Amino acid sequence: MSSPKLDWQQEQHQENAFIPLNLEGVSVNYATRRGLVQAVRNVDLQLHAGQSLALIGESGSGKTTLALAIVRLLPETATVGGKIQYRRNGTEIEVLDLSNKEMRAFRWRDCAMVFQAALNAFNPVLKVWDQAWDTAKAHGWHDKTAVRAKLNDTLRFVQLDPERVIDAYPHELSGGMRQRVLLALSLLLDPQILILDEPTTALDILTQRTIITLLRQLKEEQNFTMIFISHDLAIAAELADRIGTMYAGRLVEMGSSDDIFYRPRHPYTLGLIRAVPTVTGGFEELESIPGSPPDLVDLPSGCKFHQRCAFVSDKCRTEEPELDLVGPEHFAACWNWRDVEQQLVANPLHRGVQPTMMAPRQVDRQPSEEQDA
Amino acid sequence: MTPIIEMRNLTKTFGKGSEIVTAVDAVSLAINPGETVCLVGESGCGKSTTGRMVAGLLEPTGGQILFNGQDITKLGRDQYRQYRQAVQIIHQDPYASLNPTQTIRSILTAPLLRHKKVRNRAEAEQRAIELLEVVDLTPALDVIDKFPHQLSGGQRQRVSVARALTMDPKFIVADEAVSMVDVSIRVSLLSMLARLKEEFDVTFLFITHDLALAKYFAWQGRITVMYLGRIIEDGPTPRVITDPRHPYTQALLSAVPEADPELAHRKRQIELRSAEIPSLLNLPPGCTFHPRCPYFVPGECDTQRPSLETLAEGGRVACPVRKEVHLELLA
User: pLDDT tens string for chain A (373 positions)?
Assistant: First the structure.
């Protein structure tokens, strides 16, 4: 899009924050019997220090694969292309060039990952302390008392009583406690970046809230750099500074949390937001996105979303759009993002703006969806 | 109006000896024909056990279930069969609830033939195709010869719904029916279920842990909140959502993450006295929420089990201490 440069577009270049993680053209392919699965395609991403970034998208959109590519934990059938540059204390590392030994040191010390199913992430026959000591030893610590003191600190930070937890086996802890222990362990080596894969999925609402509050503290008080992966938009709204939408292996939109929730420019992001109800935000009409995500072995031509898109034009069927600047620090990969903008003017995403009770609005729906839900 | 389903002091215990768990504790709830009731609560609150008892899959330990005013334990053989056919359940996991070795055709025609809903195989297949169209699995002929593993999660869940519809049910228990389906497809499944409500005159008991979904699906109906086996609050959905009275309902609503940054940051957070859920094996005396409740009154809350009292604003609440107090959830 060759529109004249606006003020905010110039400002953009002046900002020169530290970028600990920079992805350039990252692609991940899996070799399968059916053919090449293009799980992640050509993703550029810059993670700013102190920022929390959420990657949202449905199952199969490539968000977990992308995160696993950063810490190189993908299965052997996967090939990773592109550049993953990591910076700390003035040195720059190309993660994909690290040897296995260097990689083992990089994980956890520089970039720690908190996995989704907290029970599976533990070794079931080791006590919490032994898991921590193993990790510390592997990263060159020899002083048991120092490790113990550090673990006590991180456990207290996640509001757990170290006495109670440190000699417990994973099965002796409740789901919420396990998730918190995992978080404490991930902080053990003072990593610069924390990657959290579905950190609150499968937890009860009140437990979920404890974890969210903790993560917010980590973000606001400790200024931690974090990447969240979630299919749950609410987690992104609660925790993210910036949000990236992924669809069929590509980053299709990237912007501040407010941009994504109130001014989305990609039809898929808009579709996701219109499909999710809020609890205290009044009654919203919801819409679902027709169709289902494409087969990653046999991707459609042009924009991968065009078969499900309400804004589709001829160009979308043949040419795949790249991320384009659509606002300050806001990018979307859509030929027709201006139409999305127009539609939002006519039918804004009110939600948080109108907290008072609203009667269900009568809107035109497809004949098959006539009834009020 | 006679309620289509009425639970009276419905109770279910599991285990024996000293290891007894009361999963559902004296639940009373009447559901009128055409009404939509959402049963919400966290895992272990007894909502699924309640749903399974209503659908006849579990036998209650105590209390009664009335179907169209008649106690189901007193029904004759034919009447009991009618009840079992009229009350159907849709399970949460569409990967586990469909037989992987059967085609969609046989999943749908077997019950039709077994219960003589049709006269012959040709009619059964005709009916199966109609039902696939009802649940928006079109073109039905593309789907009917497939096996469950060839369908997506959303499509499988639609097959589960079609299978429930083979019995011309009047009452459907939907147990977390959309929880395992991707966000973008959830709404179309919900609107399909909502359409059944009108077209087939089906009454729904919608079980979910997701308050936002409950609000959306049962906006014109009721929400019933369970905690540790008991109903602690119920009422018309708009009232429960905007003016919750039980401290537990308030805590839940304030804790739910919101898919909207502004709402997420304006939500008032309620501090509970304890984050731990009591063990069902060793329930606290009195109100079971008292060890966590921020409004705990010693001597009152920990001695007497509060009964559900009717509210002027609609519904019932089991909290004598806070039942008149309105709490603004947004700051």
Answer: 444 444 444 444 434 578 899 999 999 999 999 899 999 999 999 999 989 999 999 888 999 999 999 999 999 999 999 999 999 888 899 999 999 999 988 998 899 998 876 667 888 899 999 999 999 998 988 899 999 999 999 999 888 889 989 999 988 888 888 888 999 999 998 899 999 998 887 788 888 898 899 899 888 888 889 999 988 899 999 999 999 999 999 999 999 999 999 999 999 999 999 999 888 887 778 888 888 889 899 999 999 999 999 999 999 999 999 999 999 999 999 999 999 999 998 888 865 444 343 334 333 334 333 333 3
Q: Residues A268-304, buried b or exposed e (16+ Cβ, 10 A)?
A: bbbbbbbbbbbbbbbbbbbbbbeebbbebeebbebbb
Output the CA–CA distances (angstroms, integers) from residue B73 to A203, B67, B85, in the order listed. 37, 10, 15
Q: Nearest to residue A355, comparing CAs of B262, B223, B238?
A: B262
The sign of the CA dihedral A88, A91, A97, A102 is: negative
B186 and A275 within 8 Å at the Cβ level: the answer is yes
* C-beta separation of A299 from A248 below 8 A: yes
Please name the member of B216, B255, B261 whose beta carbon is closest to the beta carbon of A373: B216
Encoded tokens for B270: 């309620």
- Cβ separation B263–A352 shorter than 8 A: yes
B262: nearest CB among A276, A284, A352: A352
Q: Which of B241, B234, B292 is nearest to B263 (CA)?
A: B241
Tokens of A352: 């948080």
In this complex, do A289 and B219 lie within 8 Å of one another by their Cβ atoms? no
User: Which B-chain residues 253-272 have CB contacts (< 8 A) with chain A?
Assistant: 253, 255-264, 266-267, 269, 272
A187-233 pLDDT per residue, tens? 998 899 999 998 887 788 888 898 899 899 888 888 889 999 988 89
Count CB pairs under 8 A between chains A and B. Answer: 163
Q: Is B182 on the interface with A (CB under 8 A)?
A: yes
Residues contacting residue B18 through CB under 8 Å, at least 6 positions apart: none
| Chain A residues closer than 8 Å to B258 by CB | 234, 237-238, 278-281, 352
Q: Which two tokens stand for residue A163?
A: 């006495």
Say yes or no: B151 contacts chain A, CB-CB below 8 A.
Answer: no
ipTM exceeding the 0.90 mark: no
Q: Do B275 and A207 touch (CB under 8 A)?
A: yes
Residues 38-67 of B with CB under 8 A from A: 42-43
Model pTM score: 0.87
For A281, which of B185, B187, B263 is closest by C-beta distance? B263
B36: helix, strand or coil: strand
Contact state of B258 with A353 under an 8 Å Cβ cutoff: no
Instruction: Using alpha carbons, select from B181, B305, B165 the residue that is nearest to residue B232.
Output: B305
Query: Closest residue of A to B244, CA-based?
Result: A280
